[in-house]
# Entry
Amino acid sequence: MNMPSNILDARESIIYNKNVKDNIKIACIGDIHISNLVKSEDIKHLIDFLIEENPDYICLVGDLVDSPKELTEGQSIAKVKLLLELCSTIAPTMIILGNHDFVYKDAKDDGYYFDCKDAWEKLCDIPNVNLLNDMLFTDDKIIFAGYRQKKDAYLSSFFNMKDDSCAFYDDFIKHEDLYKNLPKDKPKILLTHSPESLCDGRVKELLSVFDAKLTGHYHNGCVPPFLEKIYPNNAGIITPGKLPFPRTARGVKKLDDGSYLFLSGGWVKLSESAPRFFHQLDNLYTRQIDIIILSSDEKYLDGSFDNKPPYILKKKTYED
# Structure
């Protein structure tokens, strides 16, 4: 049966950047949520598409696994390793961790990340794979800054699943290597998992050095495929923090400082950690990734993302 979950939607966006010599193509994938519900075949379908696209860089913007406990499961570790090994054969691969990758809901202290730190470092000890845990990646073409939002940035308590922009700002500002004195002659891309705090005034000013911010976490605002074209641009139905009808939850948004915010729709919308009732509903959503092309062609200089989708939608259908 040809379900929406057998369709990969790739949104190809072209944005202007004066520091690009030759076009740079970035594949951005978020929220794969590897668990028993994600099959090795799903990963191979994703890789087949990436091989066709042949990006210069691959960015995995968090929630690679559905829970840190998956890092103790042999089958899940094998799937993560398969994903990373195959990505690494295509292009330099950047990884940041999302809240599902390291936050334990029963954590009682600040040791929640370090319980799985060794597992992630071992998984990412693959040539051409870069775990950007509050670190930079730079080469002769581009700079990626990877920031791991801390637990307090995602939730002020385990009963209040709402992002905390103050916690984001107070921690990010300490990481001066990520945003101060960066070379001016290269495009600068920030990778961080949740987009919610990025629309806060102080945070936007702090991050103004970056040309684009690549995020995940929002799962396309849980907007189903049949509403994609008629639902208000960038708006969603609900966020992981239970915020109803968010104005910015999906797609691409040009911010008032001239930078771009990409909200990856995610591979999985309703993961295994959701109540069992919702598991089958995930089949009603397409798999989504972003293809981002940085270009110095001035015809893209005045491109507006307000009145129409700024991307070309590429669809690929596969069978289980």
Summary: Confidence is low (pLDDT under 50) at residues 157-161. The chain has one domain: 4-317. The chain has seven helices and 13 strands. Residues 57 and 91 are 5 Å apart (CA to CA).
